[in-house]
Amino acid sequence: MRVITGIYKGRRFDIPKTFKARPTTDFAKENIFNVLMGYIDFDGAEALDLFAGTGSISLELLSRGCKEVVSVEKDRDHARFISQCMQKIGAKNDVLVRGDVFKFLKGCHRQFDFIFADPPYALPELPTIPSLIFDCGVLKPGGVLVFEHGKHNEFSTLPHFREHREYGSVNFSIFTLEE
User: What Gene3D superfamilies does UniProt report for this protein, alphabetically (predicted)?
Assistant: First the structure.
């Protein structure tokens, strides 16, 4: 896993072979961040990385200048790996929450400029996540939500949907909340 651009550009982190999480591919990550350049300026933004997995997106967000990134990951080993990666780069502006994303969202009392959600593709609740994020009010007006999902999911009829991007087997639905 590598950081694509920014202050940590080129940094590589070896993911343990025992991990269940699959990081967003470098190809897909680079392309979706290129698209996002037209939606948001990450410099100084507050971001939320749901189902953080390996921490690949959190690292990318910090590298691109986010003021703070909150990474939510339930798996103990994955959370430990994210913590180790943050220590290696000396990041002080990543808040790691080891816990359930659904409980976190329902109890969260703050808003973010950018939210990235990459749930396991087989998660039964996957289709409900974009609506839950908007219902919980965690995205700031003018904010952007990127939702990574498999090819069998369709979100274009949901409120706030803007566009769909596909890179190989990786699909992204982009949502915005108007100001």
Answer: Vaccinia Virus protein VP39
The matching CATH number, chosen from 3.90.1150.10, 3.90.190.20, 3.30.70.890, 3.40.50.150, for 26-176 is 3.40.50.150
pLDDT of residue 19: 83
Instruction: List beta partners, residue 117.
Output: 50, 147
CA separation for the pair 173, 123 (Å, rounded): 17
Bridge-based pairing of strands 112-117 and 94-98 is unpaired
| Closest C-alpha to 105, from 68, 131, 79 | 131
Distance CA 127, CA 1 (A): 27
Q: Mean pLDDT of residues grouped by 10 in the chain (179 residues)?
A: 93 87 84 96 97 96 98 96 96 95 97 97 95 97 97 95 95 95
- First-residue to last-residue Cα distance in the chain: 35
Return the beta strands (E) in 119-169 as ranges. 139-149, 161-167
Name the amino acid, one letter, at 50. L
DSSP bridge partners of 145? 115, 175
pTM: 0.96
Greatest Cα-to-Cα distance within the chain, rounded to the nearest angstrom: 43
Region of residue 160 (phi > 0: left; psi between -120 and 50: alpha; otherwise: beta): left
Question: Is residue 108 a contact partner of residue 138, using CB atoms and an 8 Å limit?
Answer: yes
